[in-house]
Amino acid sequence: MALQHLKDTWDLDVFFKGGSDSPAFQAYLKEIKTLISSFKEKADALDGAKAESGGLKDAIELFETIDVKIRQSDAYVGCLQAQNMTDLKANALNFEVTRLNADFQKVLVIFDNKLADINEALWEKVLNECSDIAFILNERRSRVKEKLGANQESLIEGLAVDGYHAWGDLYNSIIGQIQIPYEEDGETKILSVGQANNLTSKPDRKIRKSVSKNLDHAWEQHADLFSSTLNHLAGFRLNVYEARGWEDVLKEPLEINRMKRETLDAMWQVIIDHKQPFVDYLKRKASLLGLEKLDWFDVDAPPGSAAKEYSYDEAANFITEQFETFGKKLSSFAEKAFKDRWIEAENRGGKRPGGFCANFPDSRQSRIFMTYSGSASNVSTLAHELGHAFHQEVIMDVRPMNRAYAMNVAETASTFAEMITADAALQQADSDEEKLVLLEDKIQRSVAFFMNIHARFLFETRFYEERKNGVVSAGRLNELMEEAQREAFCGALGEYHPYFWASKLHFYITSIPFYNFPYTFGYLFSLGIYSRALKEGQAFEEKYIALLKDTASMTVEDLAMKHLGADLTKRNFWEEAIALAVRDAEQFLALT
């Protein structure tokens, strides 16, 4: 075993020593504030002549410097909050960073409007001189033309700190205070939401049912707070959209993800047309578990008891070994992440639920957060987040303005890494029973992306339409959620999860609207790439890295055409991609 005695807690002191009391971090924030003031001076001074004489280049360089430091600050505070949700000083720091970012965004509004004011002849000259970032400059210039004037957009950014982002912070605070009782061996334990969520995939149905019931009780107790929060978040967005004259709530998320509506529609339609194998899988799984139909809390249950448990060291070695079958760069990177303590995986209370990868661009490092309890699913999550980190690693070779890739392509590298380890575990299974469990774990992800996330998309789309007419009550949110789940799961379940809208953090994230369909895009897009990698072997790694480096400097349609020769607005690519997932479902049905 190459990797031994690994620590399962991350090292944040390498960035700023002292945690939420760090003097170095306070100095860093002050530096950002000074840089923003300088950037404002340069942005205010910009005009056609300045752009021609080099003033624009100076402003762009300062823009990139601040952007890197803001991202570093946001990552650091996010990690502090995630590792200890009772760290009130970290919450205060989060407010400071949010305020700084709002100040930065205000200046960017001025900067973007100055770009829009440059005449066409001069603009062509600017693009020739800045050819490596021409896509981003054109994107910023065209988007600002669809928004309000500089003063109004700056006002929106300022008001968003307390009137928008604060609602997302409130949700996180409530979740951090929720305690879930759990009885084990006659003793009642108090779990965080994250720890409780880990138990919902346990083999024992009594445990799953009990924990799910206690979680639902918590959501119900706080339903009014959650519904108020969700309504205010949506209300703020809708008011901004109305002021800008935007009628389609998907306009902003599609633009952020640099994709066309035709691409989104083609993807969902192919998924809808291929749901039957997954419906059959859910029915078969219910039969294997001795149930007429699966309930919501049964969907992630293992179909047998042969699930292998992995120690943290075993998981690290397994992942790095399997990554090497694809390429040495990916494997070496993962080994560095484990050795240098980039990962917070300890199974303890007080942590935020879920997992994420945070990028520290000023230090050219990443940090991975999760709660590891040894399951095959945990191993997949670990590989998933390492995929994110690898994406961030390779894109450091391009200039900062070309690093801001959207969420949909962000999920490509993570899902790709996850597929490598999932397939390897399946191939190395010691018995048919273990093979079945691992295969089922893969299919669970397809069900999550094709059904669960489809339900989230349907719910959020319909919720926003109703929210245009006024506040939507908690009871109505339950109805919308259950209706969406029944449709997305094709009626395959017995009981659904009407309070899912309250339990899912993604509905309350303020940085990206519609935090759902990009996951499914990334999953299927990655499957399409993975099918190419299977054919080409290790020779594909350099092509893959080239694709990742381009993820923030073109539309997804252009990205797919350039590196894969695929038209994402048509069904062909999506059909090829989903075939791999359908094959897994069919194999499961054959084995059982």
UniProtKB/TrEMBL annotation:
Cofactor requirements of the protein: Zn(2+)
Keyword Hydrolase carried by entry: yes
Keyword vocabulary terms for this entry: Hydrolase, Metal-binding, Metalloprotease, Protease, Zinc
Key word Iron present: no
InterPro entries the record matches: M3B_PepF_2 (IPR034006), OligopepF_N_dom (IPR013647), OligoPept_F_C (IPR042088), Pept_M3A_M3B_dom (IPR001567), Pept_M3B_clade3 (IPR011977), Peptidase_M32_Taq (IPR001333)
SUPFAM superfamilies, alphabetized: Metalloproteases ('zincins'), catalytic domain
Peptidase M3A/M3B catalytic domain ranges (all copies): 199-579
Pfam families named among the record's database cross-references: Peptidase_M3, Peptidase_M3_N
Domain Oligopeptidase F N-terminal: 115-178
Manner of cofactor binding, per the entry note: Binds 1 zinc ion.
Gene Ontology BP annotations: proteolysis
Gene Ontology terms for molecular function: metal ion binding; metallocarboxypeptidase activity; metalloendopeptidase activity
Recorded family membership: Belongs to the peptidase M3 family.
Protein name (record): Oligoendopeptidase
